[in-house]
Write a structure and sequence with these properties.
Helix content: 25-40%
Strand order of the largest sheet: 3-4-5-6-7
Number of strands: 7
Strand content: 35-45%
Shape: globular
Distance between the termini: 55 Å
Amino acid sequence: MSRLGRAAAFFAFALLAACGGYGDDITAVKQAEATPGTSNDAWVDEIAGARGHVEWSAGKDSAYNNPDIVAVLAKIDRPSANGESHKIELHFIHNRQTQKVALDNVVVDGKTQGLLGGALNLMLLQLQ
């Protein structure tokens, strides 16, 4: 195997290891619509704002006894203009069999929110 071939194989292996085999699940969640015409990816970026950072990860969800259900997490670090920093976690599930995506849980600054309360808190963070 040539040096270029080995480098390409190593890069591909490293990429697969980084995604843990869940890259397609993350992509499916990002592409699904949060609201009509707005993808989850765009919605999460909007929550993060100009100063924020988003980190996506995925893995098996022990809460569901179904190997087709994958938990996908969007961790958002959102600094505000006044220097405060907010930590937001959006927990999604992706069903590989049905190809459905759902928002499962919202955590704002370490406090689990109901979906309605979480949506309201996220909207209030947008105003800061």
